[in-house]
């Protein structure tokens, strides 16, 4: 087996296991946070804000470490830290007892700090590692295939989430955290790094000097390329919108829409069913796109992102204004399919415009932009939800995506003018 094939398999396994863990934890997160812990819309967004502030603070540092020392090491450390954070998040309900100095909500916030730190070690480093190992020309195909295969793990994770939630609402987080810890052990044994070359430090250069030099190199790359500045704007507004939607759509179904009375199903079963349907739909969409889309053509990628962003805006507004459960269900399924397809297309567009030596640093800076958007936009959307209604807050989240259409439109025009 060649190093390229081995890297592709490890990356796919990584995405499969993280998809399994994420589906296990997040399918029924509202049952844990909204029903069991009783968090209101503002508290839900505060949880997200603590996570994103942590990402904002540490993302640039960990990205530079990945580019300076080792992408592999950064990913492995991140998996262990993430696993620890998720286990703590699931244990918050147990830890927040009457004899504890901290409430369950404070334990939950502390877990977000650990979660965010772990995420920064993985963010950018995993993508930079696989792109270097297989080459930019093959990365888009691998992103698409890994995304499709990851959806199969999501199906299993949905079933685990519903079953574990029936036993105890916090168990999905505990088990999901242990899956991340297991993945860390697997990567420690099998993940190889063959194409990464450490930057050669100047004579007498300190570790701090090496880190700052790498960071400044990444910042210079972004400043020198208008398309990367455009991507920064995209991630900023996309982060602001996604934080509001992700934290509130399940609460919206619970409190504003309600589930059909004709079927005596628990909230966990309903959310599991919705996740199952959205995953099956996304599998079909990804399989179709994998065969039809030319991921090496930047014009195709840009047009796809424009259309998919427009579709996301329409779907969120439709969810917010849904008059009944069926309407909301169809809108949620459509949104999730669109978002699933957007992920690998966005990753491809981004990596087509980054050079290898500063790839992890630039990717981390993009994640910082996303975190800044979520930190600023999340509490705003949460305040709107508490002050007015969850429907209004979801509309606000959709509005935050509108500027992205202008960015994609301008980038497309610039590309056409350059190629003509």
In sequence order, what are the helices and strands, one letter per element?
HHHHHHHHHHHHHHHH
Q: Which structural class is indicated by helix and strand composition?
A: mainly alpha
What is the mean predicted local confidence, pLDDT? 82
Biggest sheet descriptor: none
How big a fraction of the residues is strand? under 5%
Report on the architecture of this protein:
Helix content is 83%, strand content 0%. It is mainly α.
Question: What are the SSEs and their pairings?
Answer:
Elements lengths: L2 H24 L2 H8 L4 H28 L2 H25 L8 H19 L2 H10 L1 H32 L3 H20 L16 H18 L1 H32 L9 H26 L5 H23 L4 H27 L7 H29 L2 H10 L2 H18 L1
């Amino acid at each position: 087996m060649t190093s390229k094939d081995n890297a592709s398999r490890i990356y796919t396994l990584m995405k499969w296991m993280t998809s399994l863990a994420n589906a296990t934890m997040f399918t029924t997160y509202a049952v844990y946070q909204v029903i069991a812990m009783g968090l209101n819309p503002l508290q839900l967004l505060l949880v997200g804000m603590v996570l994103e502030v942590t990402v904002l603070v540490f993302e640039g540092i960990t990205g530079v470490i990945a580019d300076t020392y080792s992408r592999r090491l950064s990913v492995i450390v991140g998996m262990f830290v993430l696993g620890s954070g998720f286990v703590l998040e699931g244990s918050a309900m147990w830890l927040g007892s009457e004899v504890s100095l901290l409430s369950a909500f404070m334990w939950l916030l502390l877990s977000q700090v650990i979660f965010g730190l772990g995420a920064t070690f993985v963010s950018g480093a995993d993508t930079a590692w696989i792109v270097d190992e297989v080459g930019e020309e093959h990365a888009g195909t691998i992103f698409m295939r890994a995304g499709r295969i990851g959806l199969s793990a999501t199906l299993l994770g949905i079933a685990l989430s519903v079953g574990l939630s029936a036993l105890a609402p916090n168990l999905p987080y505990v088990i999901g955290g242990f899956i991340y810890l297991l993945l860390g052990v697997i990567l420690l044994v099998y993940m190889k790094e063959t194409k990464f070359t450490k930057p050669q430090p100047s004579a007498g250069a300190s570790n701090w000097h090496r880190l700052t030099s790498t960071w400044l190199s990444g910042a210079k790359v972004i400043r020198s390329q208008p398309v990367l500045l455009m991507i920064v704007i995209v991630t900023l507004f996309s982060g602001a919108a996604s934080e509001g939607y992700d934290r509130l759509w399940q609460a919206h179904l619970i409190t504003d829409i309600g589930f059909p009375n004709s079927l005596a199903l628990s909230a966990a079963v309903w959310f599991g069913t919705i996740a199952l349907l959205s995953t099956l739909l996304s599998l079909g969409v990804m399989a179709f796109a994998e065969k039809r889309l030319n991921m090496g053509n930047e014009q195709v990628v840009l047009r796809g992102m424009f259309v998919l962003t427009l579709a996301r805006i329409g779907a969120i507004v439709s969810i917010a204004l849904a008059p009944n459960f069926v309407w909301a269900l169809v809108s949620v399924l459509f949104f999730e399919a669109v978002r699933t397809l957007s992920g690998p297309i966005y990753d491809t567009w981004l990596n087509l415009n980054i050079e290898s030596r500063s790839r992890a640093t630039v990717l981390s800076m993009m994640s910082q932009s996303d975190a800044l958007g979520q930190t600023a936009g999340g509490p705003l959307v949460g305040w709107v939800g508490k002050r007015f209604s969850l429907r209004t807050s979801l509309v606000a989240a959709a509005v935050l995506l509108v500027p992205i259409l202008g960015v994609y439109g301008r980038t497309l025009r610039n590309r056409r003018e350059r190629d003509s």
